[in-house]
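Help needed: design a sequence for this.
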C-alpha cells in the first residue's frame, strides 16, 4: 500500500458512503498527515500512517523520492532471502513429499540433547551485530 502526501484531505468515514460513480474521485485523494523532525532528524510516524501501512514496532519503511520532489512512503518488504537457504529448504520440501516414510518424530532424548546444547545461551535478536559477526 502506498500513501502519497497530497494537499487534499478527506475523512475516512465519507469513503464508505460513496456511490460507485464517485469511487474514481477517492483514488485521487489521500489522507494528509505531518510530523516534526527532532534535532537528530527523527520523527514519530503518525498513527493514521501506521494504520494505513499496517506498521508495527520494528517494521521498516521505504521512501521513494519522485522526480517532482514528492515522496512515496510504503511498508518495506522485509523478506530478505538467502538463495542458498531457499534452495536447501526447497530440496527438503520436495524430498519430504517424495519420501514421507523417512520422516520420524523428534524423540525425547533428541529434544534433551538439543536443550543441553543451548542451556545458558542468551540471544538478543534486536541487538546489533558486532563487526566480526557482520
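Sure. Designed sequence:
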Amino acid at each position: 500500500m502506498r500513501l502519497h502526501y497530497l494537499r487534499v484531505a478527506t475523512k475516512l468515514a465519507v469513503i464508505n458512503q460513496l456511490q460507485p460513480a464517485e469511487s474514481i474521485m477517492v483514488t485521487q485523494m489521500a489522507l494528509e498527515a505531518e510530523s516534526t523532525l527532532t534535532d537528530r532528524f527523527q520523527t514519530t510516524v503518525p498513527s493514521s500512517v501506521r494504520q494505513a501501512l499496517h506498521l508495527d514496532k520494528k517494521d521498516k519503511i521505504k521512501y521513494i523520492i519522485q522526480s517532482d520532489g514528492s515522496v512515496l512512503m510504503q511498508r518495506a518488504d522485509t523478506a530478505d532471502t538467502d538463495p542458498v537457504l531457499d534452495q536447501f529448504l526447497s530440496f527438503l520440501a520436495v524430498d519430504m513429499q517424495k519420501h514421507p516414510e523417512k520422516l520420524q518424530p523428534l524423540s525425547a532424548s533428541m529434544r534433551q540433547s538439543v536443550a543441553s546444547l543451548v542451556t545458558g545461551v542468551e540471544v538478543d535478536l534486536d541487538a546489533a551485530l558486532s563487526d566480526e559477526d557482520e
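The mean pLDDT is 77.
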